[in-house]
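Researcher: Sequence of mRNA cap guanine-N(7) methyltransferase follows. Predict its structure.
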Amino acid sequence: MAAPAVQAARASKKESLEERDVAGAGSLEEDNDYWKKAARRKGHRKRAAREESNGKRRGSEERPPKDEQRDREASIRGLGDSRFLKDEESTNLIAQVADYYSARTNNTSEQREASPIIRLKKLNNWIKSVLIQLYARRGDSVLDLACGKGGDLIKWDKAMIGYYVGIDIAAGSVEDCRKRYNGDADRNQRSNKNSFPARLFVGDCFDLKVPLDKVLERDAPFDICSCQFAMHYSWSNEARARRALASISALLRPGGTFIGTMPDANVIIKKLRKAEGLKFGNRVYSIHFDEEFADKKFKSSSPFGIKYNFHLEDAVDCPEWIVAFSAFKKTAEEYGLDLVLVKNFHKFVYDFMKKPEFVELMRRLGALGDGSSDEINISPDEWEVAYLYLAFVLRKRGQPDRARAKKRVGRGHYDIAKEDIMVIRSED
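Model: Prediction complete. Tokens:
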């Protein structure tokens, strides 16, 4: 079937979720906002009445910021609050995710081109390339969380970065990343090595026995952190989500940038509510929620641990978790990370295909039609999958200190041996 054109992306602008700006970047379910705000107002009135009856000035019993910060730091480690305790089910599911990705083989170029979602993969690569071109600078130090098989290494090389650290939970993927970095992944890939030194780690970057910022203390600070199609794996419980954002903030320099892509919760919940049952999808993907969500209602006050099963042909077949963007934004702000950009993939395409340099980039990646066509070479089924995702950019508060970057020169390797890969343990 003919591929949707850029005009299709323009038409998608009418979708209610696509006009979000930083101030109104989606919530898990908009119809819950009214009740949440009403409950908050009611709570304020009750608290005011209590304080008045006790003869106390409202707000006099608020704890000082230092205590709040201490509690927040404790919450990262899951101490003293049952909300942050690890759960066995979540741990087992994350192990299942790791096993799935470790078992995936590193396909040849011919096999990749034969994938039923090859055009979606090219579109995803274009979106990641645009993010890197927009926010990476020459000489930057990069932290790549959930680096996988190193599919973005060539993008970072073209950005002329100065240093790279990659970490992934799947040992098999990190080994493939090592081979790709060394230039010997397969005979059809680029054979020359990358121009920047690197270090590779195997471990669950969202759940380490030692906090990630301690593990990478000698590598920090980083100018840019990237987490592509993986941040939702930290949302299985509040402890993991907070630990992830706290570590990212601690590892970024002031003014540093966090770029990423993840499922768009608003779109997924919207599609679930339109579906007859708890499963929906098309010929290349399916999403299935458990019976506990049969009423298709989700509490805004409990945005963590909302699991669904996701299948995408030739790519994914494992549990994932809803990330309510309003909760993501709010939690990130607690750790000094402010929102710069959030766009559903359809809106991302519509906006950045207005720029000639990015049209040409999409053409080079093979994501456009033949000749001078500006039509995106993607099937309707794959285009629907793209609608399930969003891109985001966060920036750490503070003034940049570029002088600190010089201290990283000379670290890492230009040729990574198997024994150079460091394995770090998750929490017991």
